[in-house]
Design a protein that fits this description.
Layout (H helix, E strand, L loop, with lengths): L4 E11 L3 E12 L4 E5 L6 H8 L7 E6 L2 E2 L7 E4 L11 H12 L3 H14 L15 H13 L5 E5 L7 H18 L2 E6 L2 H7 L2 E6 L4 E7 L15 H17 L1
Parallel strand pairs: 3-8, 3-9, 6-7, 7-8
Antiparallel strand pairs: 1-2, 1-4, 4-5, 9-10
The structure holds adenosine-5'-triphosphate (ATP) and magnesium ion.
Adenosine-5'-triphosphate (ATP) binds next to β2 and α1.
Amino acid sequence: MPPILSVQDVSYVFVDTHPVRALDGITLEARSGEFIALVGPSGCGKSTLLRLLAGLLRPTEGRILFDGRVLRGPRPDIGLVFQEVNLLPWRTVEANVRLPLEILGTPRAEADARVREMLDLVGLRGFENAYPRQLSGGMQQRAALARALVKLPRLLLLDEPFGALDALTRERMNLELLRIWAHHRQTTVMVTHSIQEAVFVADRVWVMTPRPGRIAGSVSIADLPRPRTLEMMAWPEFGRLTQAVRSLIQEAE
Ligand SMILES: Nc1ncnc2c1ncn2[C@@H]1O[C@H](COP(=O)(O)OP(=O)(O)OP(=O)(O)O)[C@@H](O)[C@H]1O
Ligand SMILES: [Mg+2]
């Protein structure tokens, strides 16, 4: 089966006061249903790559194929959760999650059902009428996740979705995310700073190196069975895999 996502020799240059080559010759692929984690130091271009995959930026060089066709802009079947929570403060949780369906013109009854399903899925039942400021950070991120999932995207892009949360909440959110993924099986690319988190969630970890951002290599996590449990973090195999990712990062330095 051809990959659902294929990034072919992609470079990206920001042109501001002077040009900044943020990404250089990025080549990678994702199979349908695969869960990819993307790790790398701050400033290496992870968010830039995610924006390219979302169709929000166009490659300066190279091309990105989604489902066999060149990606030319944002699409309803690609969902993105940004690094910073960006819910609309004047809309309730329910209305925030509904927004993408309003834009798509989804019929009311279908939209109602989907919004309910997604709020259930992320555990926000009972908070439909709350405003973002009335929610904790973790709940806001779950609302942002529900908003990205409500379009039933075939590709879900997550930019450090739980980066601002405490370690315990973060572990719980990762388990919830894996449960949702097991249910919908959308191809997922999740950016994270944490090597442990990357190994815990992913089928494959891509490692990026900075200035300009390049792919140093990838590590397959296929040997770690699913469903993943927190106990696995104490397994020797888990330690071996995090060490393999760490070595890739260090070799590139
Ligand atoms: N709008 C912009 N204009 C100019 N340069 C930019 C812009 N956005 C990002 N950059 C530069 O591109 C590079 C990659 O930035 P990016 O935000 O993709 O990194 P990142 O890996 O997501 O970092 P972090 O882990 O801190 O979120 C950095 O050197 C940054 O300074
Ligand atoms: Mg970033």
